Amino acid sequence: MRFDKLIPTLYGAVVTAMAPLAVASLALKPRGRASLHHRLGLWGLESGRKYVWFHGASAGELRGLIPVLKRWRDRFPEDSLLVTATTVTGLEAIQGLADEYRILPFDAPIFIRAALDSVNIRLFIATETELWPALMSYLKKRRIPRCLINARISQRSFPKYLRVKKVIAPALHSFNWIAAGDEESLERIRTLTGDAIKGELLGNTKFDVERGAITHGSDPFWEGYHRDTRPTIVLGCVRPGEEAWWFNAFKKIIEQSRDFRIVIAPRHREKFDYFAEKITEFKFPFIRRSRDLYDPKVPVVLLDQFGELPSVYHGATLSFIGATLVPLGGHNPLEAAAWGSFVAVGPSCDTYETIVKALVKGGGGAIVSNEQEIEQLVISAVVDPEGMQERGRAGIRVWESQQGATDRILSRLSLFRGEEVKRP
């Protein structure tokens, strides 16, 4: 038997062998324990229902599916929708749009079969770079139509995929149809598959995501917040270590008696206290959203409640998008840009490479690589907030100009909804 024919078997054996270690690691964390049965394939889905299955890695990828899910529901209200993710955070970001939610099992035949052998799947739709060899092999054997939308392979990850081409290429070939989010990704996919790919360039549905809901109403905190007209700088989805780059610049400007407001919005709730300690170390007076009344005399707000980030992006003069000054790839800058906030990201922004390039080219964003560049942006936001806000409005124009991918993609996906696999 040829070695390349053994690769899927070897891959499955390795994942199965590593599963006990992964189980032990997850069992140590409350959120890991809560989803452990799903990772072992214990899904408990109703066998009598026929599901359209949407899958994304985590919150950022799944938010890009929101417009697709909404329009699918409008167009095919009779369909049962299943959404899966690889993280609990991902599922939390997309509640209320599907009938069932599950964590994807470990990618080995034993766990995949346990989850899906009794489930009737009409169509499988993955997003971005969710290439799971065992899962794709299972779906292909059962002749379930398989589509990949917003397909993305970043410049940074491309060399890694080339090194494991013998595993990744078959997974890509397993898709009946691929919709690439950008031209560079489509070319990288074709390189991996030797051009033998059923792919189109249709854009990214993340540009079709609606602006998040703004918190108004009778909440005294937000009433005070929205009355405050000071220049506002937001550190959104910030990760530990990134704050130092910005806090040094803030300290210099505050010492110059400049009056502006800073909002720190950590990505994870378990890091709220970490950021409170860091703010204290820099001797910045601050209030915590969850505990304190709003005070317009205090320069720093620690946003330690989830679901309220759109309220601070709306009206923000400058917004930094976290996980980009640490090597994590970043979060979606459109969440801020769509509100007219000028966007800054660090150099590790390959997860949203195309969106960042569009914002920078359109004048609505910038990539910062050192503290000097950050300090200059902070000065611009504080000294000339009107000028910074005008630059931010360019981000709205970029967001609007790129919309429409959802309708294009949905028209193709509907062709795969029948019993027989049809190609566009």
Describe the structure.
By secondary structure, the protein is of the alpha/beta class. The chain has two domains: 3-203 and 404-416, 3-Deoxy-D-manno-octulosonic-acid transferase, N-terminal domain (Rossmann fold), CATH 3.40.50.11720; 220-401, Rossmann fold (3-Layer(aba) Sandwich). It is 44% helix and 16% strand. Helix 11 links the parallel strand 6 and strand 7 (199-201). The two termini are 36 Å apart.
Measured on Cα atoms, how large is the radius of gyration?
Answer: 23 Å
Number of individual domains: 2
β-strand percent reads 15-25%
CATH fold-level name of the largest domain: Rossmann fold
Give the biggest beta sheet.
7 strands, parallel
Distance between the termini: 36 Å
Low-pLDDT stretches are 419-424
CATH architecture of the largest domain: 3-Layer(aba) Sandwich
Number of helices: 20
Structural class: alpha/beta
CATH superfamily of the largest domain: 3-Deoxy-D-manno-octulosonic-acid transferase, N-terminal domain
- Helix percent reads 40-55%
How many beta-strand runs? 14
What is the average per-residue confidence, as pLDDT, rounded to a whole number? 89
Q: Tell me, what is the CATH class of the largest domain?
A: Alpha Beta
Strands in their spatial order, largest beta sheet: 3-2-1-4-5-6-7
Overall geometry comes to globular
Write the layout of secondary structure elements.
Blueprint (H helix, E strand, L loop, with lengths): L2 H25 L2 H5 L1 H4 L10 E6 L3 H5 L2 H10 L4 E6 L2 H5 L7 E4 L5 H8 L3 E8 L5 H9 L4 E6 L6 H6 L1 H9 L3 E4 L2 H11 L5 E3 L18 H8 L4 E7 L4 H13 L5 E6 L5 H10 L4 E3 L11 E3 L6 H5 L4 E4 L12 H4 L4 E4 L7 H10 L2 E3 L3 H13 L1 H17 L3 H9 L11
Parallel strand pairs: 1-2, 1-4, 2-3, 4-5, 5-6, 6-7, 8-9, 8-12, 9-11, 10-11, 12-13, 13-14
